[in-house]
Design a protein that fits this description.
Helix content is 23%, strand content 25%. By secondary structure, it is α+β, with helices and mostly antiparallel strands. Strand 4 and strand 5 form a beta hairpin.
Length: 369
């Protein structure tokens, strides 16, 4: 009798990274809960009346120590604060100036991976939305002003807004501990900030909340304020929500080709259980093709497609060229002549890994494995 063949389902590398990211998130949550229990226990043991359990990273964000900005002043300060490199808390980061401030703000975004496979439980565990074309930026309101920072950390706008504590008028003025942080895309044709996500609202941090909760908070809390009113003297730019859809057939079709008030530049997918993590994450995905984006390929500053597309690869100490995945894929080996010219012997011995753009060695042959 012939045995029935059992087909084992192959799990893609991206799906494996998604599973690992969710598992790390659960472990982190358990660690934080345990830390909170120990902290509460120690406070109870000491009976100290002056303990403050609020997050110290967010204390003083709007105490006046952050960058001095005035309406209409959109130039970057060239002074330097001299802070040492390393991971900085939110308070320390807001005190930086010039190039250090740009570098710090550039690290405060959650960045999607390119979608290269269909996630498991797509309909159950994912949201989808159309991505507006424009500049991705953080919008921060505090101390009676609002400013935005682009992906590279550069100051985009400084302006009054109807966000809580976003202007120096009675309707939106608030105590110094009130601030908001939004993840937006600035759509230049209609001078509108399209809101993708919310990370802080009135000083309450949502970084460790699920996407499902953040989107609920975004849709409910912003509608309670006068954020969506037409532009005016004390609300210079228009704000608008990007519609979020369930990942079913209707939702995917709406995000991919449905009518929008903005120029579409691809489709974004978010795992409903994911927290807002800084850096690239497989729990947020971006899809682009010629039907849903004018820019399915990289373009230069003038919007033209270059003759060669760029790819960032990593050169390892043994001369191999790999991708930046959690499990790097080895694409080839660089010739010894190139290694001797481009990498110092000390860096080679220390196992230094360099990020190199494809254009840097496009004219140098490497041996494909």
């Amino acid at each position: 009798m012939a045995r029935a063949r059992i087909h084992k389902r192959t799990i893609s590398d991206q799906q494996r990274r998604r599973d690992l990211a969710l598992e790390r998130q659960k472990e982190c949550r358990r660690d934080l809960q345990q830390h909170a229990r120990q902290l509460a226990s120690s406070i109870a043991d000491h009976h100290h009346p002056h303990y403050n359990l609020s997050n110290p990273d967010f204390q003083g964000l709007t105490d006046g120590s952050n960058e001095e900005l005035s309406y209409g002043d959109e130039e970057e300060s060239s002074s330097s604060s001299g802070h040492s490199e390393g991971v900085l808390g939110l308070l320390e980061g807001t005190r930086l100036r010039g190039s250090e401030a740009k570098a710090w703000y550039a690290q405060q975004f959650m960045l999607p991976e390119w979608m290269i496979d269909i996630p498991s439980h797509l309909k159950r565990d994912w949201y989808v939305m159309a991505r507006p074309a424009g500049k991705r930026c953080l919008v921060i309101s505090s101390s009676g002003t609002t400013f935005s920072r682009t992906r590279n950390g550069k100051l985009l706008h400084c302006f009054p807004s109807a966000l809580p504590n976003g202007a120096k008028i009675r309707d939106v003025a608030a105590p110094s501990h009130v601030f908001c942080i939004l993840d937006c895309i600035f759509h230049e044709p209609d001078s509108t900030y399209y809101i993708l996500d919310v990370m802080c609202w009135r000083g309450y941090s949502l970084y460790d909340c699920s996407t499902e909760f953040r989107f609920f908070w975004r849709d409910s809390k912003l509608s309670e304020e006068k954020v969506f009113v037409p532009p005016s003297t004390y609300h210079r730019y228009r704000f608008c929500l990007v519609s979020v859809n369930e990942c079913n057939e209707a939702g995917l079709q709406a995000a991919y080709c449905g009518p929008t008030s903005f120029q579409r530049d691809g489709v974004l997918l978010y795992n409903r259980h994911a927290h807002y993590v800084l850096g690239i994450t497989p729990l947020a995905l971006l899809w682009k093709d010629a039907d849903c984006s004018q820019f399915p390929l990289d373009t230069d500053s003038k919007g033209h497609v270059p003759a060669h597309q760029q790819v960032v690869l990593r050169l390892q100490s043994d001369g191999t060229v790999v991708t930046g995945d959690d499990r790097p894929v080895v694409l080839g080996i660089m010739p010894e002549q190139f290694l001797s010219q481009k990498i110092s012997s000390q860096a080679h011995e220390d196992g230094l890994m360099e990020d190199m753009r494809h254009s840097h060695f496009s004219r140098v042959p490497f041996f494909v494995l």
